[in-house]
Amino acid sequence: MVLSSLAIVLFLILIAGNPSSESKPSAISVPPLPPEPPLSAATILVPKEPVAKPLDDIVTGFRGTLVMTVGGSGGTEVWRWSSGPDGTIARSLPVADIYDAMPDPSGSWILGLRRSGREPPLLQMGIENDPAPVFWWTRSFAWHVATPGRVAWAAQRNAGAVATVHVGERVEAGIYFKPATTLKGFELVAGTDRLVAFDDFGFVFERWAADRSSVSVQRIGPTGEPEGLVVGQFVGISPDGMVAVLDGPITRLLTGPSLEESAVISSRYTSVVWAPHSARFAASNFETDSVDLADGSARRTVAVGDIGPTILAWSSDGRFVLVSGELEEKPVIVFIDAVTLGTWTVRLDSYPVAATVIP
């Protein structure tokens, strides 16, 4: 299926400022999209047996449904693990050629990058049911941090070609999308420049030197204007646009399009995730195998064992923090009760990639 037919059937243009009007499919991109290669069949493997055990049987007090993408030797899966008397783990078919798969904030939609054989990378919608191609030559993407169904992606056909950012919105018919901006001086093919976040201020990129000797974080406005630029590595973003950046021995919290400094924390946080509808955040310290729970100036530290922790998500009620890691060379999730500071370590057979918790 060629991209022009996809544009007509599934991927119509999202029109800025006037939702009632639609532009022609021929206006799908500026500059014109490169020709798309033929799409080969995805590699589908045999699903594993579901675990008939609700999550609240394992973690005392947990409520809701954990939607999680995982990657293992069999491929990428989507787990929907629910609490309650009828709770269970529903696991999708593993797909061997999907990577970096992520659910949106609602847990309803899954996007991932696909690379099969010599095909260029492809942004693909859906893993569980009837996956559909969205955009060839996609190098990185990010769901909107606060609005379910909104997404942005960065694409570049080959080294030296112009890099572009597109924005889209998930609707029943597919993803309506439009070009947002071109990126002068960005190199996406080599992986030195990567879209890491998308919010109402625009786009956040992590930019590495070609020899990986240095890294910086840059904001790009909604129409492509360069804004704040700071030294450091991106480690998280809040729903209201605060960006966490690891800079040597410290972590900086930066606000607004210009990335103005809000706070400096004397810890090497490797991931920072904010609680829903709250200024509270959880941050992992890889060096000390601990998690800090911060609320204003107050911080409580929870040891999680020698797992190399990464914050995955908060529960939708703000009660639990979910932390992924590796214990005895096996993947685990640690659930931290933010009230009692109790912990539960759950062993898995696949490695978590991204997660959200819905009511």
Spans of at least 5 consecutive residues whose pLDDT stays below 50 are 1-31
- DSSP E strands, number: 28
Walk across the major sheet and give the strand order: 3-2-1-28
Secondary structure: helix percent? under 10%
**Helix/strand/pairing category:** mainly beta
How widely separated are the two ends?
Answer: 37 Å
- How would you characterize the largest beta sheet? 4 strands, antiparallel
What is the overall shape?
Answer: globular
Helix and strand run: HEEEEEEEEEEEEEEEEEEEEEEEEEEEE
Could you report the average pLDDT, rounded to the nearest whole number?
Answer: 87
Strand fraction: over 45%
Rg calc: 20 Å
Overview of this structure, please?
The protein has one helix at residues 3-9; strands at 65-72, 75-82, 89-91, 98-103, 110-114, 122-125, 132-136, 138-143, 150-155, 163-171, 174-183, 193-199, 202-208, 215-220, 226-231, 233-237, 243-247, 250-255, 260-265, 269-274, 281-285, 290-295, 298-303, 310-314, 320-327, 330-337, 343-347, 351-358. The chain is an all-beta fold. The strands form 7 sheets. It has a 4-stranded antiparallel beta sheet with strand order 3-2-1-28, with no helix packed on it. A hairpin with a 2-residue loop joins β17 (243-247) and β18 (250-255). It is globular, with a radius of gyration of 20 Å. It starts with a helix and ends with a strand.
